[in-house]
Amino acid sequence: MRILALETSTPYFCAGLLEVENDLEVLKLEQIDFVDRAHAELGIEKIQSLFLSANLKPGADLIVVGTGPGSYTGVRVAASLGLGLARVWKAKLVGVTTLEAIAATQDGVVAVSLDARRGNVYSAIYQVSNGRILEVLQGVEKRSLEGFQALIPEHAIKLSDAAPNPLALARLGLERFKRGETELTLEYL
């Protein structure tokens, strides 16, 4: 199964290709580029570049999109690209929160936040092991930075304004797809 992961809710355009055969990852490729607010203008070019780097004809069996939280436009760019490509390629589509794609790169209790301006953050706290979200300790919510910091356990790993990891997004999406969780809900907090 070939998986394309797209994340555009932060200032980064994150795209990843993951190919899995018999539960083995046979291809792993990712691009993370700071584009500020040029996601829509650069999206197709970045996706073409990713497939070109892999020496592959564009196409995927599963498309995983980051669902936010983030800016209204940023969240919608990945969703729009994902929906369009899924139709053209007859691929399945799955959504994963942006904060999970950031947290899944660590092991343990992971507190993730993204700047939401005016002293606020989009935030969540997860129990993570081997790239899997085992438990949501504090769900995705817009909170004051001070309020979020008060929720973070002392031993937690803190990730603030990190770029989402497209391969982690792809893996989480594949996991969701295997469980039959194919609903796409965008989060504009």
Q: In CATH, what is the class of the largest domain?
A: Alpha Beta
**Residue-averaged pLDDT, rounded?**
94
Given as residue ranges, the uncertain stretches (5+ residues, pLDDT < 50) are none
Spatial order of the strands in the main sheet?
3-2-1-4-5
Strand content: 35-45%
**What's the total count of β strands?**
9
How would you describe the shape?
globular
Structural class: alpha/beta
Question: What can be said about the biggest beta sheet?
Answer: 5 strands, mixed
Structural overview:
By secondary structure, the protein is α/β, with parallel strands linked by helices. The chain folds into two domains: 2-98 and 163-178, Nucleotidyltransferase, domain 5, CATH 3.30.420.40; 99-160, Nucleotidyltransferase, domain 5. Helix 1 packs across helix 2 (72-89). The protein contains five helices and nine strands; from the N terminus they run E-E-E-H-E-H-E-H-E-E-E-H-E-H. Strand 2 (12-21) and strand 3 (24-34) form a beta hairpin. It has a five-stranded mixed sheet with strand order 3-2-1-4-5, with helices on both faces. It has a four-stranded mixed sheet with strand order 8-7-6-9. Helices cover 31% and strands 39% of the residues. The mean pLDDT is 94. 41% of the residues are buried. The radius of gyration is 16 Å and the shape is globular.
